[in-house]
Amino acid sequence: MSAMVWGGRKPHGLKTIPGGAHLPFWRADGVIITALLHAGPVEFLYYWLHRALHHHFLYSRYHSHHHSSIVTEPITSVIHPFAEHIAYFLLFAIPLYTTLVLRTASIVSFSGYIAYIDFMNNMGHCNFEIIPKWLFTIFPPIKYLMYTPSYVSLSFDLPDSVSLIVISLAFVYY
Predict the structure, then answer these.
(1) Where do runs of H (alpha helix) occur along the chain?
(2) Number of domains in the chain
(3) pLDDT at residue 133 above 80?
(4) The pTM is what?
(5) Domain extent for 142
C-alpha cells in the first residue's frame, strides 16, 4: 500500500482513518447519508444550540460577540468565541464522522459538505440577497436548502425572539 509522503513522513490521518489512503472520489451512498444527516439531526441540533445561545445567560456571555457586528458581512459568520467554534465543529462533524465509520465516505462527500456549509454560512451573513426572489417563486423548496441573508437578518434583528415558527413563516411567505 503506497501513500503520499509529505516531508518524508506519511500524513497522520492515513494511519487513523480506515481506508484513508484509498478514499474514493465518489460514493452516492455517502453523499446521500451526508445530506440526510445534515438535513435531519444536524439541523435539528443546530437549531436548538442556536436557541440556547440566544438565551440571555449564554447570549450575554458568549453569543453577543457574534451579534456585535452592526452590519453583517461574510467574516461575521465565523466571529464566535472559542467554545462556540468547538460546538459547531462537533455538530457539523456528525455527517463526516458517520460516513467514515460506515465506510461510505468519499472525497466528494467531504469536500462538498464542507464547501456547502462554509458557502451557505458566508452567503447568509453577506448582507445582500445573492439569489433572486423569482427563483424562490419558480422552485419554492430551494428555500429549505439555502441559508439566506433574510434568515440571518431575523436572527440579528430579533436575537431574543428567534423561534422556529417565526423563521418558518418568514420562509413560507418570502
Answers:
(1) 12-16, 28-37, 43-53, 56-61, 82-101, 107-124, 133-138, 149-157, 164-172
(2) 1
(3) yes
(4) 0.79
(5) 24-172
